[in-house]
Amino acid sequence: METINTEKTNVFPNDTKRNLNGMKMKIGETGGGIFDLSGIKAYILNQKVLLVMVSVLLLSGTGFSQQERQYSQFMYNKLAINPAFAGALPSTTFNALYRNQWMGFEGAPTTQALSANFPFLRQRVGLGANLIRSTIGISEMWTLSGMYAYRLPLGNGYISGGMEGSLRYYGVDYNSPSLRADQNLASDNALIVENTRAIVPNVGLGVYYSDKNFYVGFSVPRILRSRIDFKNDLLISREVTHFYLMTGYSLEVAESVSLTPQLNVKYVRNSPLTIDANMMVDFGMKYNAGISYRSGGVYSSSGESIDILFGMKIVEPVFLGLAYDIQLGNLGKYSNGSIECFLRYSLPAKEDMEVQNPRFF
Question: What is the pLDDT of residue 105?
Fold first, then answer.
């Protein structure tokens, strides 16, 4: 699970503690957005789930919550993780993604993303762009980023170094009708009742190598530890650096059939290491299916989720990918799982008009 750190002063002063029983908790996140600890509002009516979420908050000690997006189909969405992937595909591509996490929870995390990947100068130079919107409860986050990568031949493939710059908007709508409390929130001076927002810049770096059957990449998409606490005196929150390592290898096991094991490792300081381990089976470079296991999770020794994936080329330039996450642990008792849909449109390659590999190495 990816996290951000919050360095607190006195998050729960005495007058706030007296009112905790009169409030319900805003849902925490595993797929997008941030906790706003200055106002713990209600989204979940089921008291068992509420108890689980409150425990996550209180036992975390430093107020952890996830900030970066979580993708089950990371193998198709590498540009959102590694800027060095810009220009790695043989033609210009446009992508769209939708993710609905923890279905069945009011205010559950959702993500919508658009991206474009442009190769230039015979794939020596790559440019990319991402626009990502995420919501969690009354919190909303927009990220606009641009990438540049330069590629050099190495062995049987290419190695590239990339950089990105981004602007991120954080907003919390305290006037949302979905907020519920047993008393007038304005009567507690410790709570924020006005809409808050912040815009923060950041930069990232990455390196990526790929050939016909293998890829590996390392990236740090957001290096700066920008403040994102809306100038709240009760809480100092900063973005925390996320480290990504991804790799995969495709092995042909029969005519027009190949197996591709893949890993996506995510590390954040003071957070458990998260590993997405995936195995895909490709049929004729037109259909593929697979399964993933994601480590981590809330109070779950068995991990966070098991993900079922399926992909196909609808027509020659259009690829569709679908994923369904089966939630493990305590949250799995109350969640209907998570769904993710990925759509890619590829322009014809200048040098090769044949079908592109749906593995997108």
Answer: 84
Q: What b/e readout covers 15-38, taking b as 16+ CB neighbours within 10 angstroms?
A: ebeebeeebbbbbbbbbbbbbbbb
Radius of gyration of the chain from its Cα atoms, rounded to whole angstroms: 21
Residue 304 in any domain: the answer is: yes
Percent pLDDT > 90 in the chain is 50
Tokens of 95: 């992508």
Domain assignment present for 16: yes
Identify the residue whose tokens are 């849909």: 341
What string of DSSP letters covers 253-277? EETTEEEEEEEEEEEETTS--EEEE
Torsion of CA 339, 298, 10, 189, to 10 degrees: 50
Of residues 196 and 294, more confidently modeled: 294
d(Cα 45, Cα 66) in Å, to the nearest integer? 22
CATH of the domain at 123: 2.40.160.40
